[in-house]
Amino acid sequence: MRTGRLRTVHPVLWAGWAALAAGAVLCVIGWYGVSGERYAERQLPYLASCTVPGAALIVAGSVLLTHGRNALAAARVEELHGLLVAAESADADEGQSAALPLAVSGDLLMVPGGTLWHRADCPLVSGKAEAVPVDAKLLQSGELGPCPICEPADETD
Asked: Of 14, 66, 75, 151, which is most buried by a Cβ count within 10 Å?
């Protein structure tokens, strides 16, 4: 599922690389011309005709590459969002499985050094050997917050 926006990004990237290459060539020609002249009044034409436009092309190429990369990233995010929406609508069609909670265990676990507590069957801690039962002192002091994935907040009320 490729978007039309993704196809319009590649010419911008190619134009950016072409501008960078042309600018580099002009700067080299300008440097070569300036280095062969002894007097400043003979160096000015090389600066005006090659080096300054070459530097401008390098800046323009950098801007085009940056814009192209940002547009490419935005197109990919848009494509992923479309895939997520399509998957979400497919899940909603299944009916009851979408309404079931992710985790239902009554046991609360935490990871040492973490800031959240989880249900024992939460996908973030299930199968982790370092997960330990929640200390009641940490819960009462407010140092741990509920996991937004498994939502065990109703267990402590």
From this structure: 75
